Each structure stands twice: as structure tokens, then as C-alpha cells.
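re: that chain from earlier
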Amino acid sequence: MDIIEMTRALGKAIQQDERYIRLSVARDNNDNDEKLQEMIGNFNLKRVEVNQEAARPDKDQAKLDALNESIRALYKEIMENPNMVEFNAAKEEIDSLMNFVNQILVLSVNGQDPDTVEQSSCTGSCSTCAGCH
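^ sequence. v structure.
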């Protein structure tokens, strides 16, 4: 089996992992939550309104402030929706898994023994990193 075939097998294994399944179910629940989808649609419309108002040469700052406050309230409501809370938790788990998988691959390419790589708290963003070990 070559590397590409092994990678495809890894992809299939990830799709069978409970963390992936949790994310998939959470994504479906979000997609099927009509109230949540309506809130997201309203949020996107408000963003367009904010961008249009901000681009106007004679923008109305009071209107812009009200629109921004409306967006913040909608965002808070969206993020507190139980389906969105579950989705974000599931997404965080799968992101952690994928960061660890990537960490193993990167450190292996850099000569480390893949069997000895331990999971770190690496976020995958070098901008927040104090340095690799």
C-alpha cells in the first residue's frame, strides 16, 4: 500500500471515529434547525446592511451603531442555541484530533519517531505558539 492509499484509509477511519460522527450529527442538527437557520440568515442580512451603511459617504453613525448592536445580539443568540453549542463542542474535538494527526505527520517528516509523538496543546496556529518542542 502506498502513502496515498494509506492516507485514503486514514480518511475513512476518521469518518468512522466517534468525534467525526458527533460533528456530522451536530452539523445536520444545525442544518435542520429552522429557527437557527433563520437567525443565521438575519445575521447575514444585517452584516450586508452594516457594510452598505459603512461604505456610504454620508453614513448615519447612529444607524450603524444600532445595526452593530443588532448583529451582536443576533450573534449571541446564535451562539447560545443548543444545536450551535453542540456543533462548536464537536468541532473543537475534531479539530483537536486533526491537529494531533497533523502533528504526528509533521514531526515524522522532521525525523521523530511517530510512535513517540505525544499530543500537545498546539492549535495549529504558529502566531500563538511559544515554539515547537
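The chain has a mean pLDDT of 91.
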